[in-house]
Inverse folding.
């Protein structure tokens, strides 16, 4: 059998070595979109174009195509492209992130050219029990046990309170923090369905207002050891971070993302210098001078149309306790409903404690529109950035098109 791996990346080459050593496949090669890589890579593995690979698949010279764990948008794009080219779902496999480092890609795989197909055939394949065990983790793509992005709100309120905030932080009265024990329960429950979450974003409100923030970071890394943890902040409280939080950021390889709002713009150089000195990995966004108004709080939009145009779908699954939703809207819209006196029936929420719930059902429900989509606009409007005040709290136009 012949296996082709998508992407001439480090992980892609590791997978080729693993596939060769497992004894299941006699031929391995790599599919790569960058024409400059076509030919043979430094490990001696042939690298071909998608076009050539698709022809080889339909000519039955390639049996399966393996997609390595990458950014969810990249993986979804690869899968969609293969399906459009007529590759059967059962022939599209998925290699989870837990296989990284399981094979030494620098170990040369002995190959020879197949006379008939120009596809390499592995020689002297090592009978490696661990490689075969690793092969059991490779599944059909649709059965993969990884999820793209999950967000947790460590705090719902904020110390900046921008109007037009998609989280409605400026409308929240008083302090409102996540319940750590409920969050822990939810994260552990999520782990029962998914072995890996590719990206965990800890957000707000302003998450640095939560004095127990380090516990959320520790929890996330404990339960999902490979996840990319990102902490999103407006930066105001960064210099006052506790030593315990700074240690957690460093120890758990967290990326601190500072959103550059106008009140903090002049101090970004100092924040950068502070974080450099603390050896905390960080990124600073481009200056935010406008907000995208995503809501129509009249609820008159067509849910299907809003879903199709949504730039956040599949990118911001949100979890409160053991409840999971496609995005933050089901959890934050009631804040606006209370402020402007309109009813909100929470829909689009998956209770992870639900009897009979399966991983496939979670995926299906995260990838479909729900009734609250009618409160989002198919065509958003840009508005100048500004802070909420007593007028904004009484004027729906500062939160809706």
């Amino acid at each position: 059998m012949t296996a082709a791996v998508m992407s001439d990346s480090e992980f892609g080459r590791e997978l080729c070595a693993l596939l060769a050593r497992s004894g299941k496949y006699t031929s391995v090669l790599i599919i790569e979109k960058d024409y400059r890589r076509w030919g043979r890579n430094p490990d001696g593995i042939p690298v071909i174009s998608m076009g050539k690979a698709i022809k080889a698949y339909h000519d039955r010279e390639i049996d399966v195509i393996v997609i390595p764990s990458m950014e969810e948008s990249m993986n979804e794009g690869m899968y969609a492209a293969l399906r459009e080219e007529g590759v059967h779902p059962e022939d599209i496999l998925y290699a989870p992130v837990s296989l990284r480092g399981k094979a030494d890609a620098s170990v040369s795989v002995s190959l020879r050219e197949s006379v008939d197909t120009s596809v390499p055939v592995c020689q002297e394949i090592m009978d490696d029990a661990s490689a075969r065990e690793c092969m059991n983790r490779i599944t059909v793509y649709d059965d993969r046990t990884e999820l793209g992005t999950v967000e947790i709100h460590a705090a719902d309120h904020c110390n900046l309170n921008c109007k037009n905030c998609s989280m409605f932080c400026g409308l929240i009265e008083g302090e409102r923090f996540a319940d750590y024990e409920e969050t822990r329960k939810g994260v552990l429950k999520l782990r029962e369905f998914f072995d890996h979450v590719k990206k965990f974003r800890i957000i707000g409100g302003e998450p640095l207002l939560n004095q127990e923030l380090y516990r959320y970071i520790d929890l996330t890394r404990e339960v999902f050891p490979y996840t990319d943890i990102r902490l999103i902040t407006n930066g105001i409280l960064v210099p006052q971070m506790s030593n315990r939080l700074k240690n957690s950021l460093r120890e758990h390889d967290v990326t601190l993302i500072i959103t550059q709002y106008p009140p903090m713009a002049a101090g970004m150089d100092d924040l950068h210098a502070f974080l450099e000195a603390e050896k905390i990995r960080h990124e600073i966004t481009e200056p935010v001078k406008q907000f995208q108004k995503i809501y129509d709080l009249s609820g008159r939009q067509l849910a299907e149309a809003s879903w199709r145009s949504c730039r956040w779908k599949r990118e911001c699954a949100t979890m409160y306790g053991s409840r999971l939703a496609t995005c933050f809207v089901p959890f934050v819209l009631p804040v606006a409903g209370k402020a402007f006196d309109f009813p909100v029936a929470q829909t689009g929420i998956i209770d992870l404690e639900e009897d009979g719930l399966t991983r496939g059902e979670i995926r299906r429900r995260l990838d479909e529109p729900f009734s609250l989509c009618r409160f989002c606009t198919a065509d958003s409007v840009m508005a100048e950035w500004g802070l909420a005040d007593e007028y904004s709290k009484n004027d729906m136009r500062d939160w809706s098109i």
The chain is about 30% helix and 20% strand. Residues 104-127 have pLDDT under 50 and may be disordered.
